[in-house]
Specification:
This protein has eleven helices and 15 strands. It has 326 residues and is an alpha+beta fold. It folds into three domains: 43 residues, no CATH class; 185 residues, no CATH class; 73 residues, Arc Repressor Mutant, subunit A, CATH 1.10.10. The chain has a four-stranded mixed β-sheet with strand order 1-5-11-10. Strands 3-4-6-9 form a four-stranded antiparallel β-sheet.
Length: 326
Amino acid sequence: MAEQVALALARLEKSFLRREKVISPVERQHISQGKSDKCSIEPPSKSNAIREFFLADMFDFSLKCDSNSLQAPIFSLSTKLDTRVWEWRSKDGKSYIRVVPSVLGRATQHDKDILIFAISQLVEGLNRGRADAKNRTVRFKAHDLLVTTNRQVSGDGYRRLREALERLCSTTILTNIHAGGRRFSEGFGLLDKWRIVEQSDSDTRMAAVDITLSEWLFSAVRSLDVLTLDPAYFQLRSPLSRRLYEIARKQCGSKPQWTIGLELLKARVGSFSTPREFRRKLRAIEIGNDLPGYQLKLDAGDKVTFYSVQTAKPRNGTKSGRIDSA
């Protein structure tokens, strides 16, 4: 039986490299159990080393995000076309990020899901010692990404995925923030490129996609300059709620609490709302209490405090519905 499995894996590798097919996890399980000779999605480590891409085929992984995009408001909170140039500087003035959108609009907070998915898979691959995790081009099944990120698996879902890929490629970043110990001063896109490598048999929807991360993002992955996100992150529908959770995760972490002024938080979030409107939205999220692992409280002096759930202030209120974007 072991010899049959070995032969099947050898046939797989030849077939895989020739057709660049993405194999289902069900077939991977069958071949590992000697039930099928079709193919396995995870060839031997020697084969991984010669790939020019990382195959995102794992289903048991924790969510990871690069720490720099948790700190700075790179992504738009708007659900509509956003062509405004955004510049952020740290409080000490030493770090800055300038985000320049194209005519397609600035990459959104929901577009970031694609990067989180790819980074999470790459970090898990590195932790498992996979040789192909050294590649910054990631291949994934579109269906797997849609399901993992809590998106609709429909024609509209695939269309939105394509639009997100276009915005990630065309949004230009200029920064002096270190990524993985390196300093970047040139402009670059969040993705270098993307392409559809396989179409669905039944229609024109994409089945498998290649994305190439920018060197800035990949440097963070390679140096493991990442933080783990709560699995409930993709359940948050409001872009503002997601951004507030990211700030709490970066600044508060496992500490009991962290406090920031309303105006500074507004800048850190990247909101274009008026102070009055931003305050109203924070109140709604405070009542909704939907930040996984954290709670926030806005006091009368416009101080916002994030509490970890272990030390969170008790208060009344039930979960609210979807919150409008900032």
